[in-house]
Amino acid sequence: MSDETRKRSDLIVKALSRFIKHGAVYNILNLIKKSHPADIAKAFSFCSEEERQFLWSVIPNAKLKAEMLAECEPKVAKTFLEEFPEQDVINLLEHLDPDDQVYMANLLPLSVQERLYERMERKSPETTQIAYAEEQTAGSIMTTQYIDVQDSVTVGEALNAMRSFKESKDVFYLYLYVVNNIKKLVGVVSLRELLQHKNESDFIREVMHKEVYTAQSSMDQEEAAQLVETYNLLALPVVNEAQEMVGVITVDDIIDVISEEAEEDMLKISGVGADTHISQETVLRSVHKRFPWLFAASLAGMLCMLVIRHFESALSNWWYLAIFIPAINGISGNVGVQTSVIIIRGITTDTIDQSRLALFILRQVTVGAVLGLIFGCMISVITYLFFQSPAILPIVVGSALTLSIICSTCIGIALPFVFHRIGADPTLAASPLVLSLVDITAVSLFFFVASWLLTSHG
Q: Is the pTM of this model over 0.85?
């Protein structure tokens, strides 16, 4: 979103909020006519319960109400929908695309969802097709609002078929999908190509592209998003196991998926779960999600304490070693996290060439070794400037930091691959786990190297 668009959106939200508080119906109606449902939804979310009821009564038609509610934060939409009788909810959802209908229905309790789908199936079978698809698959984010024609029609007939949908602005128009007599997808042609084709008597099968990128309805939504990103598509047709076309995923849904997956990965790396609405959760649920990682971190801290206690005699002889523990843990931990994020990114986007995996890993280890040498030299110089005795201390600290960084790099490389190999999400191997293992490794190496070198040189 550009700065100008963001400012305009913020101004609309502020103005609408002010008009709602003053009950200025005429001003609200004028502003609503010029506003996108997303801006109305933002203002709606900021309102009190009483103000929401007032705005709802002012919005002039059911379609705009439905579109606005679909743009609201899930918790706001859920709370508001639960106040309506089931039939009123069904009547409201009828104004949305099938995929949005499913999204809204899924906000409600499971028992209510089932009754809603039973009633909606009579009016909109496409909606239940999406509703019963497995979560986070291509089938769950597709829309059934697309245009297809038989491969036996002419270009002119295909154009007429597209014109027949002029009453519905929700139908996806950019591509025309070509199917055979058993509904199997056999080709695709863009609207631009149809309009530019001069001879309308030519058969559509002579104009269409036979090579079509498709997604199975059971395909993971992130894989579908990667297909769109890789091949620069504006839409991705969805087929079932028989290659029959059942829907299409549009680019706006792909953007939502990419944004949602990125946010989930960020939350997993932070060790707070994968729920993108965590800020709206109850205290107990938030504690439940965050406690395991923090507990693991506390165990790692206790292990570090045991390691330090094991080298208690070294500390009593060379007390100044304790000064360097935070620096060594901090630098090593950051290098480990950086490395793990690079590996996780490569795994999740499938950009690591498996045929050159050994070379890729060697390059990452080399980067870690170079960083280790750089920071090892830096901390050696700093140690020399501040500690004149013993003379070997700069070498001790520099060597320990270099080895710690190399080991943290190896840990950052290994953990995501291990998680991926056992079928777990590699993002779970990120920050909390990496930092915990790196802390233990760094402290152990530091005291081992320090004890060995200082003892050897008396």
A: no
